[in-house]
Amino acid sequence: MKKRKVFVFIFIGLALGLFIIQPLAISLHMYDMQGDNGEWWKSLLASYQQEFRVWDLDQAIIKLLFGLLGIALSLMFMVRQRIFQLTGRKDKLEEIRELIAAGENQQVEFKSTLRWDLRQFKPNKALEDVIAKTIAGFMNTQGGHLIIGIDDEGSILGLEQDYGTLKKPGKDGFEQYIMQLVSLKLGTHFCTLVKVSFHQFEEKDICYVRVHKSQKPVYLNLGDRSHFFIRTGNGTRELDMPEALEYMETYLN
């Protein structure tokens, strides 16, 4: 995949050099030789016409140089983009490391697994509801950070056991499962408030879920009724109907 990306940038750079940089340079030179008289776009059109004529040795060398210039610029852009990505990833790792070190609080929750029961050694649907409850609580309060793959004490457990329970094992399947859970349990329109990413700690994957605050009430659908949850301290609490109405009137308006 990385080699393919490099080849794509090389192709783009070659096209940039031959069909944009070279015609622009030649047209500006022609326009300057004419004493800046006339219309520049005609010089540009003439340079494109020259571009497709039969190449002699001099023209071939010029095209090669402009092609190499375009490739160099394209690869420099690719490297610059990669540096920004690595810097952003490093910053995110440091942020997550600080969240783990600080422990659980009103805006941070740790979960050992998404759906693998560590006691029964099998998938457990009830654990998925706990994840959905936490996400709903964050949305109804101030937003928060859910980290899956570590226990309550901050020890890294990883996601391997969860991966094995999915129809599509791996990060993509895991992310799809979380988004499907949000869609089914909370509502599809709330998926935009959830951002999922994966990071490695101690050579194990963890899932970082950034949950943003909702501007309207979020209900968790369980069985035949809806439930309203908020974050209080380092836990998630359900409010009864009178409490929920009072809370919504005070904090969600």
Automatic annotation (TrEMBL):
Keywords: Membrane, Transmembrane, Transmembrane helix
Domain Schlafen AlbA-2 residue range list: 104-239
UniProt key word Transmembrane: yes
Annotated transmembrane regions: 7-31, 60-79
Protein name in the entry: Schlafen AlbA-2 domain-containing protein
Organism this protein belongs to: Leeuwenhoekiella blandensis (strain CECT 7118 / CCUG 51940 / KCTC 22103 / MED217) (Flavobacterium sp. (strain MED217))
